[in-house]
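Suppose you are handed only two things: the residues of a chain and a line of SMILES describing magnesium ion. What would the bound structure be? This form records exactly that question and the answer produced for it, so the two can be stored side by side and reused later without any lookup.

QUESTION INPUTS
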Amino acid sequence: MSNITALGKEQHLALYRQMLEIRRTEEQLAKSHQAGLIPGACHTYVGEEAIATGVCAHLTHQDAVFSTHRGHGHALAKGVPPREVIAELFGRVTGCSRGRGGSMHLFSPEVGMMGTSGIVGPCILQATGAGYTSKLLNTGNVGVAFFGDGASNNGAFHEGLNLAAIYDLPVIFVCENNMYATEVAFSYATRNTEVAERARSYGMPGVAVDGNDVVAVYEAAAEAVKRARAGHGPTLIEGKTYRTRAHVEGMRDGGYRTQEEIDSWKARDPITTYRARLLEAGLVAEAEVNAVDEAVRVLVEEALEFAKNSPYPDPATVSRYIFSEASA
Ligand SMILES: Cc1ncc(C[n+]2csc(CCOP(=O)(O)OP(=O)(O)O)c2C)c(N)n1
Ligand SMILES: [Mg+2]
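ANSWER OUTPUT
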């Protein structure tokens, strides 16, 4: 278990607030999906919030994050406001991709959110490319790839990690090992379920952490980002975690995992366990976390109203944003 006394109160409250913002946004998105407000697929990040939160706490808007189909949490942790995420999933013009992208095309280059994606794997190569750019231009920025256990068996994993290693690129590879790719158990899909151990084959550090412990993730990411910015190359971080909702909203969630397993991970919820630990250690006062709970509730409620009241894109603009409009 991580040493929570190593961080100050402000840091703890910020990490707690970020995880809760993701959770409340996701819960709202799940409800909105059921209500028919969201066209297309919606994969939530419920249960995995500590990973995006612990990693992105070390990033600036110049650092580039490349994400997955399960990327709402990455976008939020990187600084995209909940209103822009919810509006985007609702297909509204006020969304971060102007309502043209949806859940799996959340882009916000202003804050370094370089996209969620429906294709499993390429984010690993894109982050490697961002690291290469950083090295060529000597910017000190890092590239970060978030990806699942499923993606770690994709060819992109091998290519990306190998390239980043040989050039000492400033890249953080973050594998969110939630033990399943859709309904396929990772223990079926690989003979070695310890993803962090693979780092050795590429000549880079590999760190496995409890992905439901935000401080453990925060500490591993601190070290990896420091190494990357200092020009010492990439790191692979494996966060062991679990998604407690179905693979995608509306999909059945039975047959491939047991209720006991789901319940055991719910008992290790990254947000409620952190809240309890902070209170028990006397690092924050109950009134302070309650104030965060209320602020996040209001933020997400307002974001929902904002999204609902936003217009759809004008059909007459359908051909815009296909090509760069920088010189138009
Ligand atoms: C290249 C590619 N292959 C297959 C799929 C279908 N697919 C969508 S999500 C998914 C599971 C991915 O599992 P994982 O990487 O562990 O992420 P998780 O959903 O567990 O977060 C698959 C196979 C896809 N979208 N892209
Ligand atoms: Mg997975």
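WHAT STANDS OUT: The longest strand covers residues 171-177. The pocket of thiamine diphosphate (ligand 1) is lined by residues 69-70, 118-121, 148-151, 178, 180-182, 247 (CB under 6 Å).
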